[in-house]
Amino acid sequence: MSLALFNTPDGGASTVNRGTASESGAVGKVVELWAEKNPTTGIFTYRVLINGVQRISWPDSSNIIPKPAGNKKVGWGARTNRSFGSTKYSPRLAWWEGGDI
């Protein structure tokens, strides 16, 4: 499975890739997305973890992602390069949660 961390600048339709990683087998694995603010610099770092192990990290040092209270959003998406006739299956979610801790 391929992982990608991306954002859509200015809410546009195009995406900008901020990091990628590969992971073998997805069954039973926990994928986490964290946004953590450095209290000294104010810079947010976005991290993707698989079973608690960091796989992707991107510091938003240019403050690209706006962070006003009305702009807090989180989502999950899947893409596949397989044809519709494939006998292989795309990943499925057993449980999904988003929040502001």
What's the SSE blueprint?
Layout: E1 2-7, E2 16-22, E3 31-37, E4 44-50, E5 53-59
Antiparallel strand pairs: 1-2, 3-4, 4-5
Cα gyration radius (Å): 15 Å
Mean pLDDT across every amino acid position: 75
pLDDT below 50 for ≥5 consecutive residues: which ranges? none
The counted number of beta strands is 5
- What summary fits the major beta sheet? 3 strands, antiparallel
Structural class: mainly beta
Secondary structure tally, helices: 0
**Helicity level:** under 10%
Strand content: 25-35%
Report on the architecture of this protein:
There is one protein chain. The chain is built from no helices and 5 strands. By secondary structure, the protein is mainly β. It has a domain at 1-10 and 29-66. The strands form 2 sheets. It has a 3-stranded antiparallel β-sheet with strand order 3-4-5, with no helix packed on it. It has a two-stranded antiparallel ribbon with strand order 1-2. β3 (31-37) and β4 (44-50) form a beta hairpin. The chain is globular. 1% of the residues are buried. The model has no long low-confidence stretch (mean pLDDT 75).
